[in-house]
Specification:
Layout lengths: L12 E6 L2 H15 L5 H4 E5 L5 H8 L9 E6 L17 H9 L5 E7 L9 H9 L1 E5 L4 H13 L7 H11 L3 H15 L7 H7 L4 H13 L3 H13 L4 H23 L4 H8 L3 H14 L1 H20 L4 H13 L2
Parallel strand pairs: 1-4, 1-5, 2-3, 3-4
Protein name: DNA polymerase III subunit delta
EC number: 2.7.7.7
GO molecular function: DNA binding; DNA-directed DNA polymerase activity
């Protein structure tokens, strides 16, 4: 898990970006714990949200001497100005002040800049400067071995074994969001109390299902030509008041992933490379790869056409939304 290690000595600036919330939070906590004690955080740690406060206020704080501790910690959150986002906001930022600080940071401060976004705008000088001057952590994706290690460690802290079978089933049931998975493992370790292992059976009994995983299961039934089971899953989701248009979008996404995986595999890309290109967890690509053999490129393209036609019918009101999904499923299982 080298990606989560802090190399000594502490740096003056840490730049963390990406969409993996759990990893961002974890590395941030580790930096803070190395820089300052919990007791001193009330006096010498500050957070600034760039959606609400100008960056120059944070920089002024970063140039202030610590009050109690040896170091001051200043955290800049939601640094949207490092992306290509052009949305107008009520707060204006003095980027020159930030640029000056990056070039000459205070030796008494640890500045943590967090950009929880998928992409940066590397044409911007400030982004280039940060990537050169700061210690950078990129968390745009998480590989399966790292995720398995995180969850195994979480279970081990409570004296519980986390099995590979349990891991595979948990991904199927609860998705691949690390924060959600950590919470699920915490819940299961409390139940297991060190006397049971977290295996497939325990996951089936205790893990919370996500909408995405339910739709994934439904698409899998469709691709396996099991319409009765697919209709049953659809009925359950409708009963749970899930919006049909949202369900259609998730169904379409799953077929699109399968088609993209098929096309990339034909070009010789590995599952790991495909996951990186599509910015998906490798498990999603692994499952899509297994589905391809049951459908094929031609059928996947037709499926996406059917999904597009259904979307138009739903949004123009020419067809009842639930009926539209039922007809779509019948078409998809017939391909």
């Amino acid at each position: 898990m080298a990606q989560l290690q802090i190399k000594p000595p502490l740096q003056s600036i840490y730049f963390i970006y990406g969409t993996e919330e759990y990893l961002i939070e974890t590395i941030q906590k580790r930096i803070i714990s190395l820089a300052i004690t919990h007791e001193d955080q009330a006096f010498d740690m500050s957070k600034y949200n760039m959606e609400e406060q100008p960056v120059e206020v944070a920089i002024e704080d970063a140039n202030t001497l610590p009050f109690m501790a040896e170091k001051r910690v200043v955290i800049i959150e939601n640094a949207f100005f490092l992306t290509g986002d052009t949305k107008k906001r009520k707060v204006e930022h003095d980027m020159d002040r930030l640029a000056e600080y990056v070039q000459s940071p205070s030796p008494d401060t640890v500045l943590i800049i967090i950009a929880p976004y998928e992409k940066l705008d590397r044409r911007k000088k400030i982004v280039k400067s940060l990537e050169k001057q700061a210690e950078v952590f990129e968390f745009t994706s998480i590989n399966d071995s790292m995720l398995y290690q995180i969850l195994s460690d979480e279970a081990a802290q409570n004296g519980t074994e986390y099995t590979r079978q349990g891991h595979e089933r948990l991904l199927e049931v609860s998705g691949t969001n690390a924060s959600i998975l950590v919470n699920e493992v915490k819940k299961m370790t409390l139940y297991a109390a060190g006397e049971q292992v977290i295996d497939r059976e325990l996951v089936d009994r205790l893990a919370a299902r996500t909408l995405e995983s339910d739709v994934f299961q439904m698409v899998d039934k469709i691709m396996n030509r099991k319409p009765e089971e697919a209709f049953r899953l659809l009925a359950d989701l409708i009963h749970q008041k899930e919006e049909p248009v949202k369900l259609l979008a998730l169904i379409t996404r799953q077929f699109r992933i399968a088609l993209q995986t098929d096309l990339y595999q034909k070009q010789g890309f590995t599952q790991k490379q495909i996951a990186s290109r599509l910015r998906l967890h490798p498990y999603a690509v692994k499952i899509a790869s297994s589905q391809i053999s049951r459908y094929g490129e031609s059928a996947l393209k037709k499926a996406l056409t059917f999904c597009s036609d259904t979307d138009v019918s739903m949004k123009t009101g020419t067809m009842d939304k639930v009926v539209g999904l039922q007809i779509l499923i019948q078409k998809l299982v017939s391909l």
